[in-house]
Structure prediction request, 470 residues.
Amino acid sequence: MKLTDEQVIDKSAKWVVSFFIASAGLWLLAAALLAYIAAAKLTDPFFLSSFEYFTYGKVKIAQANAFVYGWGGNSIFAISIWIIARLSQAEVRGRVLLITSGVLWNLGITFGLLGILDGHMNSHEMLEMPNEVWPLLFISYAIITCLIIVLHRSRKYPDTIAPQWFILAAILWFPALFLIAWNGLEINPSPGTVQSVLSMWFGQNLIWLWLTPFALGVAYYIIPSIIGKPIDKYYLAIFGFWCIATLAPWSVVHHLEGGPVPMWIPAIGTVMSIAMIFPIAVASTNFHATAFKDIDKVWSSLPLRFVIFGTLSYTISSYIGVIFSLPSVAKLTQFSIINEFHFNQRVYGFFSMIVFGAVYHMLPKITGKEITKSAKSFHFWTSALGVMMLLLAYLIGGLTHGVLAQQPALDWTNSVIASIQPYFLITEISFIILGFSQLVFVINIWKVLVPNPFENTGRSKKFVSKASTV
Prediction:
């Protein structure tokens, strides 16, 4: 039987996407293990204390890098290639070069994390991996990016839509952010305080201009694809895109409130953070007005359920972030564990949940094998429980931490630490639940990625033909 255009595209993307998804899953497990070790050391400082490689500072930094670059980077490569190929109606070319570059990317991260655990690290946020690995990471990323751009340029139709804007922008913004930060921190080091500002600016914008627009682009693709209806008030999407592009790079500097920097810097950040209400409202309107028109389909489709959970998390926590950017509130929360709430909300509650949904939607189409509904449902509920426990612990614990830390009459060790210790215990339990949930996810995807020699090939081919629709 002759293959449809979608089947030909999926076939061309199969091995590349499978490689990056499999790699992402392994890094997700590595990050989960490191996250648990870091959380356990907050409740028991002597946990693994005999191993110098597992001090809290090293493990915490390694976990963030494994999650963002390992899990995040590989997920971005896999899903971007598939969605751009589908929207361009073009086959994936340069597959060997893509996989080779992916191998180099993962080798670079591996050496980088080993360097961090061995104590050879930089002091710049999200640039902690040793200097020697960054040229390898940048070259491999540049090759993959160029091939994705070539894929987009070969599209059949000249017009572009929201998923392409957000995904391509995210892919291109990362090297721009890196080159600016690397130049100002390593090649031509900026003087004094400027380095700390630039370091924070890169680390925060890595979330806002790389992970966030990518996840939004995926949501713009997945939601209408599954529901079968166009995005509600789609004309607002371009406004939301340019708001993120222009406001997000400046809004992140509100985190410098109370730091040794000129007051106008966090003041600009506060103004821009408040203005971020507009793109947040646009995304909420586009996604939720579309999804809630057919709430039964949201509930019955597990990939869509993951995506909607992620978009709801993005909306709610982003509004919370706007409140925390206000100077009167920031004075209480700035130097508390509330910052862990922001990071984990972005990477677990928003980015990861949308990626889970996209992977569950994508894999059956490129492999011809479905993941059982019970396995996906179990993964969803354990992920949702773990994320909500984690975020609530950091939110309430952070507020408690911030308020008590402002009381100079209190004994800091006995009062503040004792008050937030229960929340550390909750975060440890949350990471156990999330780690188990992520193990289930990796088992789910590897069961369809690894060929089964005893599988009924006729049944598999029949499923491919049913799964090939967009």
Q: What stands out?
A: The first helix runs from residue 5 to 43. Confidence is low (pLDDT under 50) at residues 457-469.
